[in-house]
């Protein structure tokens, strides 16, 4: 990448804030927009421009990265007189790093193509800790030459880039990866609930897992304190995983394949969400297995 891009970053939540700050630390020229303006303060203090609207951000950038919560939030930054679409110009690039439905992502790629805008769908694998450390795995979909050209930008936010194929392949791969993550989480929670029901200390589960090379999973270690302390600070909020699980099930229904375990995971996560736990880490499903609901 001979001329460093002027990057506009939209979405400064748990993940986006860390990702955008890593771009700043890597020396990229970064401007930001966030619906809640208070979250832009540290970026202004770091010398970044703060845009009042998505359109204004696009005008001061040649590459826009979006990291928002879902299709509704994406529509809010794309459409309308102050949206990104109104400022799209040929030769610019949109990199969406949010997890959206594959069908929506394909339509967004087409919209960009019609406007002469390069497009990559690059959702990430990893949670808050990995984002802060720049250790995310980035799942890239789009034209391969575009993904290669923006590799320095992507690697400023992650440890590796997995190229999956033309859009929406990055998004499709993210759903496959998160399916495993969702089931690992509920398996861990159910195992801890069963241990407690049998008067076993859940610590023994983690000890046994750590000593077994086939089961010594870094994710289990990452979630260990949540399970043992029954405390669930949000590294990956339950509401976001529930959204992703529903995207998985919609894709499976469209292609007429069964995902029976994922359906059960959705039911447990929906119960936790309806219990008011949506903002907590997804490991909070443990509470619905061990505590009576009010």
Give the helix level as a range of percent.
40-55%
* CATH architectural type of the largest domain: 3-Layer(aba) Sandwich
Major β-sheet, in short?
A: 9 strands, mixed
- What's the CATH H-level homologous superfamily of the largest domain? NAD(P)-binding Rossmann-like Domain
Radius of gyration: 20 Å
User: Which fold name fills CATH's third level, the topology of the largest domain?
Assistant: Rossmann fold
Mean pLDDT value: 95
Measured distance between first and last alpha carbons: 57 Å
Strand content: 5-15%
Structural class: alpha/beta
Q: How many DSSP helices?
A: 14
Q: What's the number of domains? A: 2
Work out the number of β strands: 9
CATH top-level class of the largest domain: Alpha Beta
Low-confidence stretches: none
Shape: globular
Order of helices and strands: EHEHEHEHEHEEHEHHEHHHHHH
